[in-house]
Design goal:
This protein is mainly beta. It folds into three domains: 264 residues, Beta-galactosidase, Chain A, domain 5 (Distorted Sandwich), CATH 2.70.98.10; 104 residues, Immunoglobulin-like (Sandwich); 184 residues, Jelly Rolls, CATH 2.60.120. Helix content is 5%, strand content 42%. It has three helices and 41 strands. InterPro entries: Carb-bd-like_fold, Gal_mutarotase_sf_dom, Galactose-bd-like_sf, GH-type_carb-bd, Polysacch_Lyase_4, RG-lyase_II, RG-lyase_III, Rhamnogal_lyase.
Length: 623
């Protein structure tokens, strides 16, 4: 065993495997679960496969131990495994170097890992990787991930068959005989506690007797795949605390990293910080959450850390930055350029519009604009990137035509940038608000049989289980009909277009036209997520001749069954000939054409019908 001790925290790690078996802190001999085997208490793991092969799961065990640094009040140790070329085709083709850092007078420790593709390694797919901490089940019962999302959680025994009922989604159970009777009748599902990368940053558990908090803090999301809107798991019944870096949740196979034969690659995952705090007074337990949020800010200000001993982790002086100002040009909203306020702007290896959402091999660096559209992206690793973005209130993805080069110790001035969202003509009508989610639509109350009390009267009521079946409860005989100018999307547009009675469902959007302009109308249909959807769009008649758009087997996001309101964003631009439209009453039919699948469906973000373009409008100015 390797033991690291700074007087506040003591870590016990297997040698040479690099598996964390013990954390001693605050009067508790071990914060990790004593009923779990030593190999499954604190560990890195990976899901991977060879191309076309069956998925594989692997606990990452090292074969070599070394001390990297032991000076200046800091010790960093390495547990490394090297790919054996003689095992080609049978073993994970990666070199993995797992690191632990313990510093003097710091109430916690840092973890990171370096993954590297060795020369001549075969093709393989990286599906998921993370670090997992299983805490003591007899002590840690209360979790916290935001100010609002905090609760007592079930015991691990509660999700076993004799104490729960498995529901239609395998990860979901109904607690029928939990150890804590107050939880009886609630649903437990790890996906209910997912968070966007941009909204998370700190999550953890609190113990009883002594009162100790265990926190995972992400000072940066640069190494996590999928960008700021990627959703990741945080905590779940176990009690488990997760540091997710790479995964497919809420996106599907589109985000899997595919490596070709001999392709070189290296990536540093982390470091992240495990922060520990405690109090002798139970009345001060909530203060530990406040303290953890402050500690997150301190860790973010310290990024990139100056105490990491790998040459592959670059310090602040070895990084650069980029700044600029983003405008939106939509001549049907304003003759002048519109400052892109609260927009997300980022640098990614992706070269196509929106491809940052499925980019997994490289790092991503993001910033948010102020009310004037100005932004700065700091601490960027030198390289050549695509400049991406998206703006709340406008459809589509921004991608600058020019690549951006970042150099060490310098700031790249990008100047004024203009995003021109797709538009052909004036708006005839629109439904929703383009923010890449379904937040502005109607989310029903949960069926009382499947409640999670945390999300009652919550702005995140969509986290409740089984809401896909509530569509049938609300529309038992006829599908949804929405009349533009009469109905309110917040009350009358169901947030998820699913089956009704496990049969295909067709929504009708009724609208009036005072006149029809000869030419091509454009239907902008932005989706927040899709799962095994066969989507058909008809105009004024459901026969084949009036079918204007069709896409089959769209998406593998699993957002509906995983209690979310967004997954992979998509924008469809659909031509509608004026010959399909009539003066007066018209109907747009949206059909979810796949039946027999309770979990298939599509989440709409925003729908807009545009009339044919009139005469050309003059170009706006940045003056």
């Amino acid at each position: 065993m390797v033991i690291l001790n700074n007087g506040l925290v003591q870590l016990t790690i297997t040698n040479p495997g690099g598996l964390l078996t013990g954390i001693k802190y605050g009067g508790m001999d071990n914060l990790l679960d004593l009923k779990s085997s030593e190999s499954t208490r604190g560990y890195w793991d990976i899901n991977w496969n060879l191309p076309g092969g069956q998925g594989r799961y692997q606990l990452l065990k090292a074969t070599d131990y070394s001390v990297i640094n032991s000076s200046d009040g800091c010790i960093e140790v390495s547990f490394k495994s090297t790919w054996d070329q003689s095992a080609r085709g049978t073993r994970l083709p990666l070199n993995v170097d797992k690191r632990f850092i313990l510093r003097s007078d710091v109430s916690g420790f840092h973890c990171y890992a370096i993954y590297e593709r060795p020369t001549g390694s075969p093709a393989f797919d990286l599906v998921q990787t993370r670090m997992v901490f299983k805490l003591r089940r007899d002590k840690f019962h209360y979790m916290a991930i935001t100010d609002e999302k905090q609760r007592i959680m079930p015991m691990p025994e509660d999700i076993l068959p004799d104490r729960s009922e498995e529901l239609i989604v395998s990860e979901s159970v109904l607690l029928t005989n939990p150890i804590n009777p107050d939880l009886k009748g609630e649903v437990d599902d790890k996906y209910q506690y997912s968070m966007d990368n941009k909204d998370g940053g700190v999550h953890g558990w609190i113990s009883s007797g002594p009162i100790i908090r265990f926190w995972i803090i992400f000072p940066s999301n640069e190494a996590r795949n999928g960008g700021p809107t990627k959703q990741n798991l945080t905590v779940h019944t176990g009690p488990a605390c997760l540091a997710m870096f790479h995964g497919t949740h809420y996106i599907g196979e589109d985000i899997v990293a595919h490596f070709s034969e001999g392709e070189a690659w290296r990536k540093v995952f982390g470091p992240f910080f495990v922060y520990l705090n405690s109090t002798p007074n139970v009345s001060n337990a909530y203060d530990l959450w406040i303290d953890a949020k402050k500690q997150r800010l301190l860790q973010e200000k310290s990024w990139p850390y100056n105490f990491v001993s790998s040459p592959y982790f670059l310090t602040a002086n070895e990084r650069g930055s980029a700044s600029g100002r983003l405008f939106v040009q939509d001549r049907y909203i304003s003759e002048a350029l519109i400052p892109a306020k609260n927009a997300y702007v980022g640098l990614s290896a992706a070269r196509n519009e929106g491809a940052w959402e499925v980019e997994s091999k490289g790092y991503q660096f993001w910033g948010q604009t102020d009310s004037n559209g100005s932004f700065t992206i700091n601490n960027v690793i030198p390289g050549v990137y695509g400049l991406h973005g998206w703006v709340p209130g406008f459809i589509g993805n921004y991608l600058d035509k020019a690549l951006v080069t970042i150099s060490a110790a310098s700031q790249t001035q990008l100047g004024n940038l203009i995003y021109v969202p797709q538009r052909d003509g004036p708006t005839v009508w629109e439904i929703g608000f383009p923010d890449r989610t379904t937040i502005g639509f109607y989310v029903p109350d949960v069926n009382p049989l499947y409640v999670n009390k945390l999300f009652i009267n919550s702005p995140e009521k969509y986290r409740q289980y089984g809401l896909w079946d509530r569509y049938t409860d609300i529309h038992p005989e006829l599908d949804q009909v929405f009349t533009v100018g009469v109905n309110d999307p917040k009350r009358d547009w169901f947030f998820a277009h699913t089956d009704r009675l496990y049969l295909p469902s067709t929504w009708r959007v009724k609208f009036k036209l005072d006149s029809v302009t000869t030419g091509t109308y454009k239907l902008r249909l932005a989706t927040a997520s899709a799962n095994r959807t066969d989507l058909q769009v008809h105009v004024n008649n459901l026969d084949e001749g009036h079918l204007v758009f069709q896409v089959l087997n769209l998406g593998m996001d699993n957002t509906v069954c995983r209690h979310g309101i967004h997954g992979l964003y998509r924008l469809f631009n659909i031509n509608v000939s004026s010959s399909f439209l009539v003066k007066g009453d018209n109907i747009l039919f949206l059909t979810q054409a796949r039946g027999g699948d309770p979990l298939c469906g599509i989440l709409y973000d925003y729908i807009r019908l545009e009339a044919p373009a009139p005469t050309k409008i003059s170009e706006p100015s940045t003056d």
